[in-house]
Specification:
Helix content is about 20%, strand content about 40%. By secondary structure, the chain is α+β, with helices and mostly antiparallel strands. This is VOC family protein.
Length: about 250
């Protein structure tokens, strides 16, 4: 991801909803070197920030809703969460939660695109989003896996004004002239029960070592380390509770 700060329309945060918060702290702390701090306020519901040094990198949370899957969710920065939520609905998406305020940190909404991929809208106030990108352990790329690329492109350009660089294999998504992610069409390699989703990629110094470390900590390698044509070395992993994420060579 070429972005190195939060910009309107770009990915600004990612958080994990997990069924075992303490296990997630151990797994990702060992994998990425995160230091975690859980908000002690009862109304925060166990929301846990993950830091690289003093910079916020991601969050880990309990499962708040009945039926909520164990999964990573990517947030995109917006100037007005209410307006963006309305645009998402008008473009064929579904607003699942909010918009609502989060203390004095900001205002957010949870939405799904027409194919069902879930994401968040984040209107930062006291908290703009991640303080670090593209460094080992930090968010570095956001990939949309979809079964209808044309419909997804129409939706996201209407909501966020993204640019899409055409490619038969892997269109690139961008904002402000910089790519931040890509779009992968789900083919028959993906079982029908796997829904469209956003996949965050975290930077690492060594993809092979990250996959090995994840495996020795109870995780699973879903896509073995490989070097992409004209791209970085990547792998797709699953944590012990079932959340899927990617790693790439920074």
């Amino acid at each position: 991801m070429k972005l190195d700060a939060t910009v309107p329309g770009g990915p600004c945060w990612t958080e994990l909803g997990t069924g075992d918060l303490e296990a997630a702290k151990r797994f990702y702390g060992g994998l990425f070197g995160w230091r975690t701090e859980t908000d002690p306020r009862p109304e925060a519901g166990g929301y846990t920030m993950a830091y690289l040094g003093e910079d916020a990198a991601a969050a880990l949370t309990p499962l708040y809703r009945t039926g909520q899957p164990v999964a990573w969710t990517v947030s995109f920065a917006v100037s007005d969460a209410d307006v963006s939520a309305r645009l998402a609905g008008e473009a064929g998406g579904t607003v699942l939660l909010g918009p609502m305020d989060v203390f004095d940190a900001g205002r957010f909404a949870v939405a799904a695109d027409p194919g069902g991929a879930v994401f968040q809208l984040w209107q930062g106030r006291g908290f703009p989003g991640a303080g670090v990108f593209n460094s080992p352990g930090a968010l570095g790329w956001a990939e949309l896996l979809t079964r209808d690329a044309a419909r997804a492109e129409s939706f996201y350009t209407a909501v966020f004004g993204w640019t899409v660089r055409p490619s038969a294999r892997y269109p690139r998504l961008g904002v402000g002239g910089e790519d931040f992610g890509g779009m992968l069409t789900m083919d028959d390699r993906f079982p029908p029960e796997v829904p469209p989703h956003w996949l965050p990629y975290f930077a690492t110094d060594d993809v092979d070592n990250a996959a090995s470390t994840a495996g020795s900590s109870g995780g699973t390698t879903l896509m073995a380390p490989m070097t992409m044509p004209d791209g970085p070395r990547i792998a797709v992993l699953r944590d012990p509770q079932g959340a899927v994420f990617g790693v790439y060579r920074a």
